[in-house]
Amino acid sequence: MLAPYASRPEQTRGRRHPETAAPTRNDFQRDRDRIVHSTAFRRLVYKTQVFLNHEGDLFRTRLTHTLEVAQLGRSIARTLGLHEDLVEAIALAHDLGHTPFGHAGQDALHDCMRQHGGFEHNLQSLRVVDALEERYPDFDGLNLTFETREGILKHCSRENAAGLGEVGQRFLERTQPSLEAQLCNLADEIAYNAHDIDDGVRSGLLSVEQLEEVELFDRYRREACRDHPGLTGRRLLFEAIRRMLSEQVYDVIGTTRAALQAHQPESADAARQLQPLVLFSASMAGEGQVLKWFLRVNLYRHPQVVDTTNRGKQVVRDLFAAYVAAPEEMPEAYARAADLHRAVADYIAGMTDRYAIREHERLTGQRLF
Q1: With contact defined as beta carbons under 8 Å apart, do 191 and 69 qualify?
Q2: Residue 123: which domain range?
Q3: Is the dihedral angle over the CA atoms 98, 100, 105, 109 positive or is it negative?
Q4: Which of 204, 211, 154, 151 has its CA nearest to residue 179?
Q5: How many Cβ atoms from other residues are within 10 Å of residue 277's Cβ?
């Protein structure tokens, strides 16, 4: 069922440490299973997407977001003839390096690390699966295939890429990742735009009336009202989001099929040498940018959200300073690391929101939440 341009596990560029093939699973399935059983994956359940975990039981977390990305990615991959298992593995691992408190925590940790190599969550996700997970006797990390590692690393500076070997080469050569990796990037965008609308309205920080100014959403709200007269409340919201999400999926499928037909890559490696081929149409991409701008202004920068994220930033900054000053407050493996600042960043990045809050209170005596 795979298309010629799909990645194939039997043609993988391999693992950093050679291993005997599994008898019942292909290499991409094996990657997926290792990710699901990792410590970093379990921590995602208590890491912020937009709203902190304790702010409500029904808001998305990094884990539920990750599962939604995986679902969307597999659905599109099956239709396009791409390798579903690789898409799922990339999707499940793409946020493993996220800090507590979402992007606010990442920004704060990057500021703390500015003189020590910086911090970026995509690079940290790769670091988690390459080095920080400790599950196997013969190597650090999860020893994933090149194709999964390539997909995890969505963004990377040329300076950092130069030290990553083969997986960083495309950032130096300006080529593309696999089509499966390209697909995960768009599935991520589709998922968070849709669920941030839902969470924003559920929180009371957004209203359906506000969203009427966003054509990408309101078009499907009007359709839902037309097809279901009298529909209101959460059912109307869910139906509008469902239609919007479905239309974005169909747009990606149609636009990508046209691009594949135009370029006709004969293999996964041939597709890497071309322009991005998994993409939205120009009109859908433009409407998506309007929606992202709306969410940034009205949700991510809402005073209530900013107040919470500012507290999260303070927690991260205070923890960083405390651990650098007193490394013995960390577990021994981190405290004795040769690069103390990177070890502190690794330790903080691996924390859940609630653990970071508890540690901050223990070390500073302050209660910020």
Answers
A1: yes
A2: 26-305
A3: negative
A4: 151
A5: 22
What residues in the chain have per-residue pLDDT under 70?
A: 49-58
Q: Which two tokens stand for residue 142?
A: 């999860």
How much is the pLDDT for 155? 87
pLDDT given at position 353: 93
Q: How far apart are CA 183 and CA 255, in angstroms?
A: 12
Q: Hey, how many other C-beta atoms are within 10 angstroms of the C-beta on 258?
A: 13
Closest CA to 102 of 359, 312, 299: 312
Cα–Cα dist 224/304, whole Å: 31
DSSP collapsed to 3 states, 4-64: CCCCCHHHCCCECCCCCCCCCCCHHHHHHHHHHCCHHHHHHHHCECCCCHHHCCCCCEHHH
d(CA 363, CA 322): 7
Query: Residue 4: what residue type?
Result: P
CA distance 122 to 94: 7
61: β partners: 48
Q: How far is the CA of 352 from the CAs of 42, 197, 337, in angstroms?
A: 10, 24, 22
Q: What is the pLDDT of residue 51?
A: 61
Domain assignment present for residue 64? The answer is: yes
Q: What DSSP string describes 310-337? A: HHHHHHHHHHHHHHHH-GGGS-HHHHT-
Locate 192 and state its tokens.
Answer: 């968070």
Residue 98 DSSP one-character state: P
How many domains does the chain contain in total?
A: 1
Coil, strand or helix at 200: helix
List the CATH number of the domain containing 259: 1.10.3210.10
Beta bridge partners of 145: 15
For residue 13, what are its two tokens?
């560029």
Written as six digits, the tokens of 206 are 């957004």
Q: Output the pLDDT for position 61.
A: 86
